[in-house]
Amino acid sequence: xxxxxxxxxxxxxxxxxxxxxxxxxxxxxxxxxxxxxxxxxxxxxxxxxxxxxxxxxxxxxxxxxxxxxxxxxxxxxxxxxxxxxxxxxxxxxxxxxxxxxxxxxxxxxxxxxxxxxxxxxxxxxxxxxxxxxxxxxxxxxxxxxxxxxxxxxxxxxxxxxxxxxxxxxxxxxxxxxxxxxxxxxxxxx
Length: 189
Fold this sequence. Notes:
The protein is an all-alpha fold. The chain folds into 2 domains: about 10-95, RNA polymerase sigma factor, region 2, helix turn helix motif (Rna Polymerase Sigma Factor, Chain: A, Orthogonal Bundle); about 100-189, Winged helix-like DNA-binding domain superfamily/Winged helix DNA-binding domain (Arc Repressor Mutant, subunit A). About 70% of the residues lie in helices and about 0% in strands. The chain is built from 9 helices and no strands. The relative contact order is 0.10.
């Protein structure tokens, strides 16, 4: 017996999802889940939490799918929802430390990045080790491209706190990368 496998385009799936077609929702989920899980991993403390963020994000995508107008890529539209849902999840389940540059007297810039031979998975692991607030601000600014004003609005912090947490995140990342690079050279020597 031969089974015919239907190949739907993303646009076909969107149309079917707008009609609340469960099979289309499942296919759309399967098409984008791994990419969106990678996005969630940047905001989560572990894989289970990232999976929760992903589930919440896809629920929101299906609830808002009628809002997608076709301007730009669907993946980009979905990614934005996943990021916002991950931040909401994070804010609900974690305490964010609010730090203002003026209050702490801390203002440090990190010029350049440590030249290293780390792989993407190593960098992701280092980013996962950052304190929660630093990790969120770093991802929103350096990876997602949001401004400090936008981050402040999303995270419920001041622009100064966003800048301070980014600076501290960069400092910690640089230190951790230098430590890892030093260990690699110790083993090689």
